[in-house]
Batch of 2 targets.
Target 1
Amino acid sequence: MFKSAVFNLQEATPDQVKEFLNSFDTVLSDCDGVLWINNNAIPGSPEAMNYFRKLGKRIFYVTNNSTKIRSDFAVKAQELGFIAEPEEILSTAYLVAHYLKGIGFTKKVYLVGSNGIGDELKAVGIRHFGVGPDQVKPDFKSMSPSDMDPEVGAVVVGFDEHISYPKFMKAASYLANEDCLFVATNTDERFPKSSSIIIPGTGTLVRAVETCSERKALVLGKPNDYVRKFLESFGLDPARTLMIGDRCNTDIEFGVRCGFQTLLVMTGVTSAKDLEKIRNDKTPPLPDVVLPKLGDILNLTSS
Amino acid sequence: MFKSAVFNLQEATPDQVKEFLNSFDTVLSDCDGVLWINNNAIPGSPEAMNYFRKLGKRIFYVTNNSTKIRSDFAVKAQELGFIAEPEEILSTAYLVAHYLKGIGFTKKVYLVGSNGIGDELKAVGIRHFGVGPDQVKPDFKSMSPSDMDPEVGAVVVGFDEHISYPKFMKAASYLANEDCLFVATNTDERFPKSSSIIIPGTGTLVRAVETCSERKALVLGKPNDYVRKFLESFGLDPARTLMIGDRCNTDIEFGVRCGFQTLLVMTGVTSAKDLEKIRNDKTPPLPDVVLPKLGDILNLTSS
């Protein structure tokens, strides 16, 4: 429904809202910028997600964030007022581990990332190293081929606040071996803003490693459709699935690629001004429907 | 001459070599990968450059390396056996300072780079900060708008072995102001190889900052033609200028863009295999002539 143009749900009639709510069985929601920003729930989001659950929808939290394991994400969601189980969390840290295990990977991972990915890898029995600060002493010029671990068979790049020149050097050097896999969690340029300080996203690090390795990463997070393939094995019906997000170039593009319905909320990265620009540029895809914030849906259903 | 296809100078007749040597008055040579690798001269390169000088050619050392000031580059060249004066060194550190001074820049530079750029900026009276390790304590999430210096009017990105997440964050946050200039020394993906260890080049950092700032840098180094504009004010005749390099996508592309003759040597980044690929892909541009190493020209002239 509402396929002809971006539709502000607030302008829908009560019947249209009811029809919309009946049009999906599964809700996939992005987290940062839709449900919360940093450690604060966006007002109304917990109630809206819990309302979907009450209506009998299956819920999945689909996040490109790779800094936490699934159980920690579930705890964070619960503390902010969301009903959430670890099995409902599809974080990129989990997806990386699931992907590598799925292809029968048995070598070591050089990980440019955090313990979120490290712990998920460990949970499926995949060895890894690289988390935390790295220093090549006395300086990067002293690094030699004997410093490289010959057992490494994949470089994984996720969010890493300890990114450094030696890490770029090691990642590029492992990737010089064509048999070494190159997997990235996501390519988000930035995190949703909470002030004039820009928080660079994992895409900043992925583009850097792609540049010095002269290779392209396999990206498992949105807008890549790996999540759809993953969920289809659990019986997901794309046509009766709603993807909720705050970014047209990840969440909405992901939803459109996967054949889902899409809802954009304006509490994160994509602003009303951006949406206007996207409408003119015709790229990335536009959402089916928009809402100022996710919680607004509750006002529409009670009216 | 030799315009129809890539010509191996070693296959030229003595008359053709003589004609080639008479076809240019000015020699621009890249440094890393052509004249030296790390701190070792490539055998024959000092003698070849000094031979050009003896023939009365004007010599310029054109390097995308931004880690040294001009006088230090000249000392390095001299120690490796090259005749060289600081005024003949066109390094990107110098070009950044020359560019900013030329446009009347009076604000502060946030510098993701090394003392090479810092000292060149200082020499022209431009204030800067950012060189060396950076730590936002206790972590990046604690950085606030009050940590930003309102006097910053440009972000300059060069080679920085102390690159870190806080540096990306600061660069992107300054660049969120559209009036803030974004200048990069160069976009080289890697340094020339001396082992299986890949040494990421400045392009790795520039692409990262471009990603998180969602802006494109003004790049002053090769293949940008800023060097040609700079030299034309000194009376350079492009048609009688030879550009020597080891990389098709910087040195040779730069030479072709500027209307120079071009000579590729195989002692650095671009390999014979790469050259074959470039010949098929038709991008980046091919050189007019090739030599296995620069010093080989001496054998051709004495034969």
Target 2
Amino acid sequence: MCELLGMSANVPTDIVFSFTGLMQRGGRTGPHRDGWGIGFYEGRGLRIFQDPQASSESEVAQLVQRYPIKSEVVIGHIRQANVGKVCLVNTHPFSRELWGRNWCFAHNGQLAGLTGSSSFYRPVGDTDSEAAFCDLLNRVRRAFPEPVSVEVLLPVLVAACSSYRQLGVFNCLLSDGDWLFSFCSSKLAHITRRAPFGPAQLKDADLKVDFQAETTPDDVVTVIATEPLTDNEQWSRYEPGEWRLWRRGECVASGKA
Amino acid sequence: MCELLGMSANVPTDIVFSFTGLMQRGGRTGPHRDGWGIGFYEGRGLRIFQDPQASSESEVAQLVQRYPIKSEVVIGHIRQANVGKVCLVNTHPFSRELWGRNWCFAHNGQLAGLTGSSSFYRPVGDTDSEAAFCDLLNRVRRAFPEPVSVEVLLPVLVAACSSYRQLGVFNCLLSDGDWLFSFCSSKLAHITRRAPFGPAQLKDADLKVDFQAETTPDDVVTVIATEPLTDNEQWSRYEPGEWRLWRRGECVASGKA
């Protein structure tokens, strides 16, 4: 299994604190030794750092922890391989261009019987996760050859996720840089931080941050993770089948499949 | 204008030496202050580092110079913006998936009258370069919906590049991770290093490397750049209209459009 990390914010926000917590689970406090990756949107641009090495030992991960890249949408992942060998091409998050936007996707779980499509988007590697991402984009493109709003798109996303969930475990994060869609089949949690901000203490590393000092009163920042990353704050757990659409830090739509 | 850097090798080779030379031109010995990027293939996986900041001041560029990523195919670029604003989404190299492979592209020059297509691949940013890349992939996909060998593909690539050349200046590098295609409309040079290896001295930085100590007798490594990167070796310049296809360090096909 793997762990997911997502962020949606209304101002460019650095995710160093949460990323540092997650990275510990990549070989130190957790077993996810088979690579990690994180995608940061800057406008419509997407910057992905990734490594098939354990995150707790990766030099690229150290750079990302040192370097406060500010972003409004982030998707991160650490991997414990079950399907597909350990190599760069099987490392999340995956990305593809659709409608002239960069789409980014990460998955936690395991799917049976989903193989690479011979349709438009095709997997480069051999994970069930990338196969699901390609299948999902192929469904979107078939339904809507031209761009539509995410509100119009949502039923297609939810239907696709519901069908993957029939094949196993399917927790995922998906974004086009504007919105962040999250689907929970078994395990996902979220927290929205807004004024008054307080201190937060990581579970997985001896690191505390006082968000009060790092933020302005109007900031709204939501973090999504497989397991809560801090132990002094109240995270909300998704129910199985629950999906949420985030934009600029706020939950703008939700439902249950 | 911009500068290109390409590498094709028959063993995973680090490009730190050449990259260090190129990076100096990004704001120190050259005027290319508007971003830089470099894509490394690891098998079918593609790892892109990029930054809209000047390469001579970029922290990510420093990581890449410190971190000897070994690869058989590399495409790098430093940018002096003429079309499209300075931001991540306009930073080369660009990549798209086609036929289940990651394709990577960088361009030096300027094209008039080429706009984003409403076909399958669409630009995310607003550069002429990304528009050309999308147009080229759309032509390939139209001609060959299913994968063909690069030998079969070549006429389509050459015809596309020849047509872009009519619109301005079009020097480019393109790869799918296996082969590296290069097209020169005005300026491009290459060098193939093989045994007996000797020392090389960068033009743009006080850095010398003795390739003898870094290689085995069977290594073949070709480096391609807009301008020669070393001043004690014999680089060959492409003629205008010349294209070359490289694979595992060797030129396997060439011609003149």
